[in-house]
Amino acid sequence: MEYKHFSHQHNLSIYQVQPGQQLRCSGCDKFCDKTIYACWQCKFFLHEHCGNATRYIKHPFHSSHYLILSPYPTYPSNCFLCNACGTNGSRFSYCCALCEVDLHVNCAFLPPKVTHKAHPHELVLNHSSQTGGHNQVCKMCRKLLDSNHWSYECLLCANYGVHTLCATNEIKMGLYQMDDGSDTEPSYQAAPMTQPAASTAQPGTSGGQVELTPVEALAILMGLSNAASYV
DSSP 3-state assignment of 63? Predict the structure, then answer.
């Protein structure tokens, strides 16, 4: 069975990654494992969660506008700086072109709370700058914790902050465990994850991956729910 993804011109097939294979995801640039979507002709691969990522989300970090899933950076440099983790990206991102907000796909769906074997208490995701506005040291890796980017903090221990990547290094990206023990996405996701469309999808659509008209895309960027007001 073949599938279609809006970011790629060819159909994708499901493939089970074999032990020892090193295939990089074209969505997040991390190594693939388990089941992926693949185009062998172009060496284009997607994790399941990258291939199924919804086309736009409303995120608490930037609640004034929707963030649109872009398959490539929107800047002339062909890269973006993730507002969450502070590292560069050159693949998929959730972005607001109006405000120059950019998030890696994995960063956009970071769990609001995590536990880690390095600390006895629950760690809570903080989207804002650190209290006091000055840089601290990550309590796990002992490297600089930039106050301009997100961190996980312990509400019980004063000045205990860690990098988002350090706090989640024990978690399978794209599949987070919530308080009730179920595996699901954070509550701020705009729409349920959908399977890429089968190859029988009608022309002009990508099945579950909704193709937006320019009017609809502009309406979403402006945070409007009714695109008809632009017609």
Answer: strand
